[in-house]
């Protein structure tokens, strides 16, 4: 290979790559029967979930997810927003105490300022505080050189819209228009996503006579037509495009503002008379939601825009206030068993694809052994570049993944890249930065060896 080609290959390995769809999950902790954060982190390494959103900066959680390869979104609680909005020094103090001790070992990629702040007790909250708090935190990140790695945003409820149907005519509520204009402008300028908590369940539960159940469950093939000609086969896409229309109505239609579904889910149990909240409906919705998150598909208005989705929620939380359904959105029970069967498995994950907390989960690192493998959702073109680099200028002996080698099968770039990445990682002293490969590597404490294929150790 010519020197110029090697240089271009190396730059590809080190440069940002095309974003691929990932599956995120919301990890709430309002329960008195939940597994330890360490066990949660170990479980999620064995699943296709590669992003976790939490509702605070719980130090036990942040520590547990260090060196897991799973990205975290942390949050400023609503009651802290006013203080952080006061000045940049208050925001810097919060960041220094809550986040700095855990980076870079824990991959924190965003800060969610508040949760549904503008529609939570609006009589006692000052909308402009939210925007000021976001500005101050961003200023802190800029000063520390972290603004490209960590984005600042805020999750909204659908109640920030004046109406959500038809999607093409949607606008933000008049009373919130000045604040939303400032926030959307901030997101456009900083490259952060607009987060929305979207729940077709509530729309169906409150209007079962006028909302088709399958439409709410992401499965109505007949479609609902918008006056502008868009056809919606599920309510979630319509809700996303309603937000998109509201953003466009502010004058940001020509600027890139990605939309992230920061919460969406379906409860498995509800109050008496709530016929929608059943395990079957929850399984159907979340199975389709996960498929939707992995599909790399957009919406009728923006077919080519990938939508990042965070499932709500990881656990049933028995200490949450509100209706029965509020405590039963979890995929898992507090004891770690599944509420219903949703396929979260993935190939080449750590822990051998285990999906129960009680199986193959240790209380800590098992001795000194540690390996490096490719993340499940990494782009194959980038992994091929990583593979070529490791087996070329990286100096890795890759004979085991050639056709006659013990690690040739399965003949997939993901498997071959994992083998080569691990060999490179072991050669260079098992420093976490030697398993980064611009975010495609994952450090694991579980031996990824299989059959006759043995992954090297230091």
The largest pleated sheet is described as: 9 strands, parallel
From the spread of the alpha carbons, the general shape counts as globular
Question: What is the first-to-last residue Cα distance?
Answer: 30 Å
- How is the CATH topology of the largest domain named? TIM Barrel
CATH superfamily of the largest domain: Glycosidases
Count of folded domains: 2
Q: CATH first level of the largest domain: which class?
A: Alpha Beta
Structural class by helix and strand composition:
alpha/beta
Count of DSSP strands: 13
Number of continuous helical runs: 13
Radius of gyration: 23 Å
- The strand order across the widest sheet is 5-4-3-2-1-11-10-7-6
CATH architecture name of the largest domain = Alpha-Beta Barrel
- pLDDT averaged over residues: 87
The portion of residues assigned to helices is 25-40%
Domain X8: 370-455
InterPro entries: GH, Glyco_hydro_17, Glyco_hydro_17_plant, X8
Catalytic activity: Hydrolysis of (1->3)-beta-D-glucosidic linkages in (1->3)-beta-D-glucans
Main location: secreted
